[in-house]
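ok so i was messing around last nite and threw this chain in just to see what happens. nothing serious, just curious
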Amino acid sequence: MKIKTREAAAGYLFVAPSLAGFSLFFLVPFIGSLYYCFTEGIGGTRFAGLTNFVNLLKSKSFLLASKNTMVFNLISVPLIIILSFLLASLLNRKLKGLAYFRMFFIMPLVIPIASVILVWQIMFHEYGILNNLFSRIGFEPVDWLRSRWSVGVLVLVYIWKNCGYNVILFLAGLNSIPKEYYESAYIDGAGPLICLRSITLPFLVPTGFFVFIMSIINSFKVFREAYLLAGSYPYKDIYMLQHFINNNFFNLSYQRLTTAAFIMTGVISLLVFLLFRFEVRLGKNLV
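result:
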């Protein structure tokens, strides 16, 4: 009994720094944010019930930011998953010069985004390189970041920044599939589509699910790119939830800020839960 007690004490002692850091930087701010969700006022706060949630759901700026974030996710996440899988399948083949292509896809992961955004601004500015090329061939210049094309620019930046990470994950999943399965299937007369349906996809379900989750998480972190491209108040089509939260932070609207953050956290948690359930059912159906 004394040995178990000493081992437990030693375990708690080693875990204590991590618990202290988690409590200081996550648990305490979480409780404080939850408190602000149900109060009103800055100095002398008072209980407000669900008023903050009701007012937030009536806010045009919050609804606009929510709609833009949902549209961005619906466009960018499927695109980056499909593109990453196709590129990983190509890079998994034994072709010459593939090492250079792998390095090309990994480079965006190590280059600071703040230094690269300047290049994107020069490219898509109203008087930038792209419009200069268009004007030479007779097309009218387009203000890419202040028009309906702004969503496409943001999706392109997101895919460029995160595609390499997904490609690496898919490559790891493809390399973990035993080659003997494909050889046996080809001997039995199976074609590429049958191998994809019966071998590749079932074995890639865990990897694909993880890539899907990481793509969604990274899509909610696209505020950095949008902020550097177009500022705190960008064109209405790329005004995201992160813009709404960031602007309310600078305006000291802590109630709106924390309420929006908790709503977004609840939606993401629900989405991840549903994805876990779907992944379990999909894995059973493909096996």
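not much to say yet. The two ends are 47 Å apart (CA to CA).
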